[in-house]
Amino acid sequence: MCRGFRDACRKPLQVVWAILAICLIAGGHARAQAPAPAASRTVNVGLYVSPPFVTAQEGGSYSGMAIDLWDAAAVRLNLATHYVTYPTFRDLVEAMRKGDIDAAVTNLTITSERAEVVSFTQPWFDAGLRIMVPDRGAGGFWSVVTGLGNAGHLRAYAWLLFVILAATLGLTVFDRRFDPDFPKRWREGFAESFYQVIATAMTGRMSRSKNLFGWMGRIWSAIWMVCGIAVIAYITSSVTSVMTAVSISQGINSLADLPDRTVGVFTGSVAENYVTGLGIASRPYPDIDVAVAAMKAGEVDAIVGDAPILEYYAHGHPEQKVAVVGNIFHPDKYGFAFPHDSDLARPVTLQILDLHEDGTIAKLRLKYFGSSP
């Protein structure tokens, strides 16, 4: 009887345990099959391509410090992003003003003028302006040689050297035949003639007093002296002009050197407004590649732009032979921008503050610039 009672008690317990096991398995399967929560909102984000903050990748994707920072904030706020690019800073801000986009993400400088039409987040990068110039090399002698070559003078010098050697050879043959006192050995005779030719070319005077052909010889000597004076005058003037040009081209080292020069700027940038306010002549270009090409073509003497943009380009494009000179001037800060009535400005600002505090922004700067703030 007792045994039957125990069996009767055990059966309900087995049923209960079986029901619990089925519930746990079903619940786990349901959790495994449940889709991830969808993004709560899709945001249209305007971009201005400006490496290393925004870089266009193959396939229509984008990378860069500003992109990584925005993505980090968007993930925390459960936002999906649709990117739209604009050709200039001015177009990007205008699209924001008109409500065509929900946010502007790039190295957008916070200014009072822009703050009148858009709302900025907490600054996330300290920057400023610097100057980019053509890199002429180490300077000194080799800069002059390069300048002479670019101006075509080295080719003219080569022709002059050919004429001098030909004249030396001709004078050697002539003197060996008609001058009994001329050295008989070829190397000694050639050296003597070479000295005579160079002396005449450099000083404009014949160093030899002997006249083998009377009045005709004197006339020929006078003509050779005139040619020598012309040669030395040409060499002096060409070297002087090239040295002056090199001095001018390498004379841009700071903002104080820009008056009376023409500089390239990026259309709609802070640099454009700043140099215009100083009365410095400028030409706007849509991006740094076009601006550098214009500088190398001689359209502008230098480029004024955001220091991190110029420094990153100069470091990543050594083949362009450009250099960034002088200290940072006109310090400024970057921020993301939103329409004044946007409900995203405050949440994104809070996320930027949090990303500052947890070291994410410092890591991003280290990733793209190799140094922390």
From TrEMBL:
SMART domains cross-referenced by the UniProt entry: PBPb, PBPe
Coiled-coil regions listed: none
Residues in Ionotropic glutamate receptor C-terminal domain copies: 42-371
Locations listed in the record: Membrane
Chain segments annotated as transmembrane: 156-174, 212-235
Record-linked InterPro entries: Ionotropic_Glu_rcpt, Iontro_rcpt_C, Solute-binding_3/MltF_N
Main localization category: membrane
Endpoints of the signal sequence: 1-32
Record keywords, A-Z: Glycoprotein, Ion channel, Ion transport, Membrane, Receptor, Signal, Transmembrane, Transmembrane helix, Transport
Residue ranges annotated for the Solute-binding protein family 3/N-terminal domain, each copy included: 42-372
Domain of life: Bacteria
Keyword match Metal-binding: no
Topology of this chain in the membrane: Multi-pass membrane protein
Designated name of the protein: Transporter substrate-binding domain-containing protein
Organism: Rhizobium puerariae
